[in-house]
Specification:
Layout: H1 2-18, H2 28-36, E1 51-52, H3 63-75, E2 81-83, H4 89-105, E3 111-113, E4 130-131, E5 137-138, H5 159-178, E6 185-188, H6 201-207, H7 209-214, H8 221-247, E7 252-255, E8 264-265, E9 280-283, E10 286-290, H9 295-298, E11 306-310, H10 322-340, E12 348-356, H11 371-383, E13 388-391, H12 398-412, H13 416-421, E14 423-424, E15 435-442, E16 445-452, E17 460-464, E18 467-471, E19 479-482
Parallel strand pairs: 1-13, 2-3, 3-6, 6-7, 11-12, 12-13
Antiparallel strand pairs: 4-5, 8-10, 9-10, 14-15, 15-16, 16-19, 17-18
Helix pairs in contact: 1-3, 2-12, 3-4, 5-8, 10-11, 11-12
Length: about 475
């Protein structure tokens, strides 16, 4: 009877705190996630949870409130994320460890956003500035965008800053280690800081006495890029990946935008611009940049490609179907990561559906990617090696963004064995609108996904494991076929 009373009490508490008519103890963004998603119909098994920017930072909760929230999110396949903040390290640690204890109790992953711990290498200290031929310090201000000040300095001045940054990380890792709370997934969104080669960085480095000394072939952009990216990777390994893995050797550790690739990057972040004279490969009006091989040197244990609807992308291509302009580029990015990432390295792909980083007065001819085609893209990503999604979005976008990605993630659990143990076998991205096929093989079976652009509607033939398969026009998200 006592057990029955406890179960009934927990049921009533759960329904009370997630009810739209009650004031939940966690932030509105977290409540929106609960409101627009449903518990999974298919077991998740050992597959990674879905990560959502709105399902982060639950605030100051009691142990019971934390358990209620973690359970409800887990029923939906969603992993709650806590954040570490050196500016309020005691309170953020307390909040995060409350969640972590519950996650361990329930046998779930402990997920952490450590972005604030890496802020900032270039903190305005003049000792980190570039130095010109007259001995005067100067900053690279080409990263100052939308009112944000990101004065970048010399990448060869950061020894002291690296030591301070590592200490910020170690404050938290040592606390978790002392509490016997192993970390399972720790990521950073570390972008406009530290050594970078984009925008005006090359021009600034050529003016800097110190940079010229450290990079003898500095006039060669690719040599400059490699030197800077090597240094950037070394810093990430030393101050972030290593302290995490020393305390939690099995943790997935990664950074936004860092993943194995084919030597090119097919997207530009909101603060990046193409610099005339630098090498690229052309695709219609797109300029795909050479990219240094940085992933292995970082020590990261998961890949985190960025598959976003970046506003300028729409004008790169002349496809009549506006959806294919988005679909084509985003699938290039996802396929680049899927094809080049080792099978034992999970791919946790950042995704975003709303047009990303539009200007204050966007061109009405830049059409929003349709929700239907976006969900098709997510299916193709899963069949090309993506293990799970990490949705980033703005608060006003939460409901639509969460609903779209969660629907695909939830339905995909039906094919969990394929996605967990299978091998992606098709990575082609058609340069003109037409049928797009993705497939993942497991033993004598394959799971296929077909999307059609343009006028083609008949069967499409693909060869997998020596067998030619005729794939009809899609009526379901995926098709399961026997190979022999």
């Amino acid at each position: 009877m006592r057990g029955f009373r406890f179960a009934a009490t927990l049921f009533l508490l759960t329904n009370a705190v997630i009810s739209a008519h009650a004031a939940p103890p966690w932030p509105p963004r977290v409540q929106t996630v609960l409101d627009v998603t449903q518990p999974l119909r298919f077991e998740r098994g050992e597959r990674l949870p879905l990560y959502l920017w709105p399902a982060m930072n639950a605030g100051e909760l009691t142990d019971r409130q934390a358990e209620t929230l973690v359970r409800e999110l887990n029923r939906r396949g969603i992993g709650l994320i806590s954040s570490w903040s050196p500016r309020r390290r005691e309170s953020s640690l307390r909040e995060a460890m409350t969640i972590a204890r519950v996650q361990k109790k329930l046998g779930l992953r402990v997920n952490v956003n450590a972005t604030a711990c890496l802020s900032r290498f270039f903190n305005g200290d003049v000792k980190t500035a570039h130095i010109d031929d007259q001995g005067r310090p100067f900053w690279d201000e080409s990263f100052d965008v939308r009112g944000g000040k990101h004065h970048m300095g010399c990448p060869f001045t950061l020894t002291d800053r690296a030591r301070a940054i590592r200490q910020q990380v170690e404050f938290f890792t040592s606390a978790y280690e002392s509490a016997s709370l192993a970390l399972d997934f720790v990521f950073v969104d570390w972008e406009i800081d530290g050594p970078l080669e984009v925008n005006g960085a090359h021009e600034a480095a050529r003016r800097c006495v110190r940079c010229r000394k450290h990079i003898p072939d500095i006039e060669n952009f690719l040599a400059f890029q490699k030197a800077v990216r090597d240094l950037r990777s070394d810093l990430q390994r030393a101050v972030f990946a290593r302290p995490i893995l020393e305390s939690s050797p099995k943790a997935l550790v990664g950074n936004y935008g860092i993943y194995p690739h084919d030597g090119f990057r097919y997207w530009y972040d909101y603060y990046e611009t193409f610099v005339e004279g630098q090498p690229f490969i052309a695709d219609q009006d797109a300029k795909y940049r050479h990219w240094a091989n940085e992933f292995a040197a970082t020590g990261y244990t998961c890949a985190m490609p960025v598959v976003y609807t970046w506003y300028p992308t729409f004008r790169w291509y002349d496809f009549d179907d506006p959806d294919y302009r988005w679909f084509y580029n985003m699938l290039l990015v996802a396929s680049n990561a899927g094809r080049n990432t080792p099978a034992d390295v999970p791919i946790i792909a950042f995704v975003h559906w709303h047009t990303t980083a539009p200007p204050p007065d966007p061109d009405p001819q830049v059409k929003q990617f349709s929700g239907k085609r976006y969900q098709e893209l997510l299916w193709h990503m899963l069949l090309r090696g993506t293990d799970t999604f990490f949705l980033w979005c703005m608060a006003k976008e939460d409901a639509e963004e969460v609903r779209l990605v969660h629907q695909v993630y939830a339905e995909a659990q039906k094919y969990g064995e394929f996605l967990q143990r299978g091998t992606p076998v098709l990575f082609d991205v058609p340069q003109q609108p037409g049928p797009v096929i993705s497939a993942i093989r497991l033993g004598n079976e394959a799971l296929l996904c077909r999307s059609d652009f343009g006028n083609h509607s008949g069967p499409v033939e693909v060869t997998i494991a020596g067998r030619t398969i005729r794939i009809p026009r899609a009526t379901e998200p995926v098709l399961r076929v026997r190979l022999r």
